[in-house]
Design goal:
single chain, two-stranded antiparallel ribbon, 4 strands, mainly alpha, two-stranded antiparallel sheet, 5% strand, 2 domains
Length: 260
């Protein structure tokens, strides 16, 4: 039965159209949103342990032996009331520091941004490679190694090989939340003065997009390469900060999508 389900699922996927870059972006951003929602849902608001009468009632309802009911505890938020069973590997203390999930939410959001830029660029670059007259200056400047040429030479349609071995690796390497890299990539697609155009499209003050992308990139890099350590400890990170960063990245992508 398991094999049959897997095969049926595979047939369904094969018939689907390839998702657009903006659709893939939203899927990954949904992951980041979900991580933040879990943090919010499991943020404990109780100052004290579970009361004796509650332990008795829930213990009876859950068929917990009377001698074990003293070990029952709970977590309560606006969304959830969670019971910790006796001998549970988790306790309320495990939900005090939400930063591990928040860090991963921010990393996921940045990855979604970078993947979108690369996928969007790849969806547009073929038309720019159609003729020498349509090449942008940055496309003209892409280097070609002897190994690249030998790989390309196996293709009957050389532009396919050029796109695979030269253009796509360069684009994937360039895709980043760093505003300098965003500018380079959009310039390769023929978009100049990108930050002014994105600021205008978003309806924000001039320079905000570059400033916020720099801040987000710095934090993401610190998480990825320095374990988010500042001084002798790990930096603070709140739900509100991650919400703001995720919304900022989403807004920038929506503006780039509109411009392109």
């Amino acid at each position: 039965m398991e094999v049959e389900r897997c095969r049926a699922g595979g047939q369904g996927v094969a018939g689907k159209r390839k998702p657009q870059p903006i659709e893939i972006f939203e899927l990954t951003m949904d992951d980041a949103d979900h991580l933040v929602a879990l943090v919010e849902g499991f943020t404990n608001q109780r100052a004290r342990r579970m009361r004796t009468e509650l332990r008795s009632k829930f213990g009876s309802a859950m068929s917990v032996r009377e001698r074990d009911r003293a070990a029952l505890d709970c977590l309560e938020s606006d969304d959830l009331f969670v019971i910790f069973k006796p001998r549970s590997r988790l306790c309320r203390g495990d939900f005090v520091d939400a930063r591990p999930l928040l860090r991963q939410a921010l990393v996921a959001a940045c990855a979604a941004f970078e993947t979108y830029l690369a996928d969007k660029a790849m969806s547009r670059v073929s038309r720019l490679m159609a003729a020498e007259s349509t090449l942008t200056p940055r496309l003209r400047e892409l280097p070609l190694t002897m190994a690249d040429w030998m790989a390309i030479d196996r293709y009957e349609k050389k532009r396919w090989g050029l796109k695979r071995y030269v253009v796509e690796p360069a684009i994937r390497e360039m895709a980043s939340t760093s505003p300098n890299k965003v500018g380079e990539l959009l310039s390769m697609l023929g978009i100049e003065k990108w930050s002014r155009r994105v600021d205008a499209q978003r309806g924000v003050a001039r320079g905000r997009t570059v400033r916020r992308l720099e801040e987000i990139t710095k934090r993401r890099n610190r998480i990825a390469h320095q374990a988010d350590i500042v001084g002798r400890g790990r930096a603070q990170l709140t739900v509100g900060e991650v919400h703001d960063d995720i919304n900022e990245l989403r807004s920038v992508v929506e503006a780039i999508e509109a411009i392109l």
